[in-house]
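Continuing the series of single-chain predictions for the mutant panel. This is the parent chain; the variants come on the following pages.
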Amino acid sequence: MHCLPVKILPAGRLFLLDLPESAYQALKEHTGAHAIVPGNPEISSLYLSITAKDSAQLMPPPSSNLKLTRHEIALLERWIKQGAKYEKHWAFTPIKKAALPGVDNETWCKNEIDRFVLSKLEQQDLKPNLETDKERLLKRVSLDLTGLPPTLAQMDAFLADQRPEAYEIMVDQFLQQPAYGEKMALHWLDLARYADSHGYQDDGYRTQWPWRDWVIHAYYKNMPYNEFVTWQLAGDLLPGAGKEQLLATAFNRNHKITEEGGVIQEEYRTMYVSDRTDLVGKGLVKTTGDFGMQGELPSHPALLHWLAYDFIQHNWNIKRLVKMMVTYATYRQSGGISPDKPARGSGKYIDGKRSALSHCSRTDQGPGSKQQRPPEQEYRRTQR
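Parent structure:
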């Protein structure tokens, strides 16, 4: 749904639909009407409101700029016909170990994640690509884990190592490099909007880099993710909190801070708290509304469920999770498109894009040669 609480009737009559007890009971203003009548959408006020022809009765109201699609309306109608059974929100139910999907080509899978990917591919009668060559694979994983290309010594050693576990050995080496902590920290620092300045018009300096170094160190030392988040949100509230826990809570001071003398302190304090609450919502569940209650559904819920359970069972081990994601067969695939395996989507668009790229990156032009420009830019240049 687009709104919660949902306004079922006009004239300020509001009704909550998040719980079955309130959705099934009679409306206070009209005791003979119910928001939802299981099995009968034709007399359910919810369905009548979202299909109303009268704009004064239609929900959501046109003024809200929200509109249910035909698919969403049909989905609600079918749900009511089937009995309008409520289930607990997936985020508030205990995680249970999910069964791995069955696949035909089990020999292709290198770990459990591959089974979820291959299951979807087989359902669409598709086959995975071949594994990429060792040189490209090492460059890929090095950039992903450290942000740096592999050294010549690393490349030579990997190409010469013909053992089946050669790739995993290289992954373990990258995970132990300080650069791994720096690369992983980049994502979190961007999310937290890390800066060593206040952000308003004067943009004065502030000492926030110790928190940045704490984040890098936490990733490098493989701090469990549950502790990593808890310390930053409320490390100062932990029993016997030490200097590290206090430093971690500097996460809560990454927002913009004003140094203007005439501001109302309480007003800005409220803005700061709101800013961090919004950020935590985006960071942990992507969308801020009700911390995921109205957020986007996961693109692959079965895989997400399995990964979450596995992550918790292995003590929130970040490095272990990252290693799984860079050693499975899906990650190792070649990025090329073979002639016998056409790309899904618009072939003309792909061919056209490839043609444009080849034109813009011609290699027959030596240093100092005339740069390729769109006709309009070339015209403007000649008119100067």
